[in-house]
Design a protein that fits this description.
Elements (H helix, E strand, L loop, with lengths): L1 H14 L7 E8 L5 E8 L5 E3 L7 E6 L6 E7 L4 E3 L6 E5 L4 E7 L12 E11 L3
Antiparallel strand pairs: 1-2, 1-9, 3-4, 4-5, 5-7, 6-8, 8-9
């Protein structure tokens, strides 16, 4: 199924017509029976760009600190016991030069330096293009 998500990301990136924003992000969420894909072509630098999968109980917000900066801040939120990235983190930063794969977990947030072992629920894939 992951190969299908990656193939769909490639399709969305090559077929994007509307380019009103500063960058395009294609996304896929692979969680067994909750597979979704989409594209946002209206994302603007220095503002949050939100992805809202319809079949899942979370939102993903993306933001760059400044134009030309090739590292995205990725935040996941919503739901009482969902969702987090590795080690109970609600946000991560990743370079945007290649496909980003993040494991999404359900459970609880980490407090301080404590160890948290949450259950994986799926994978979030992000691919950025047309970065100005």
């Amino acid at each position: 199924m992951r190969a299908a998500c990656v193939a769909l990301l490639g399709f969305f990136l090559t077929s994007a017509v509307a380019r009103a924003g500063d960058y395009i992000v294609a996304w896929a969420f692979d969680a067994g029976d909750k597979n979704e894909t989409g594209i946002r072509a209206d994302c603007v630098y220095e503002e949050y760009c939100t992805i809202k999968p319809e079949k899942s109980d979370f939102d993903v917000s993306l933001r760059f600190r400044r134009p030309g900066y090739r590292v995205a801040s990725i935040r996941i939120s919503r739901g009482l016991s969902c969702c987090y990235f590795a080690e109970g983190e609600s946000s991560v930063e990743r370079g945007t030069e290649s496909l980003i794969r993040l494991t999404v977990f359900e459970g609880r947030a980490r407090r301080g330096n404590e160890f948290v072992l949450n259950a994986p629920v799926g994978y979030l894939y992000l691919q950025f293009s047309d970065l100005k």
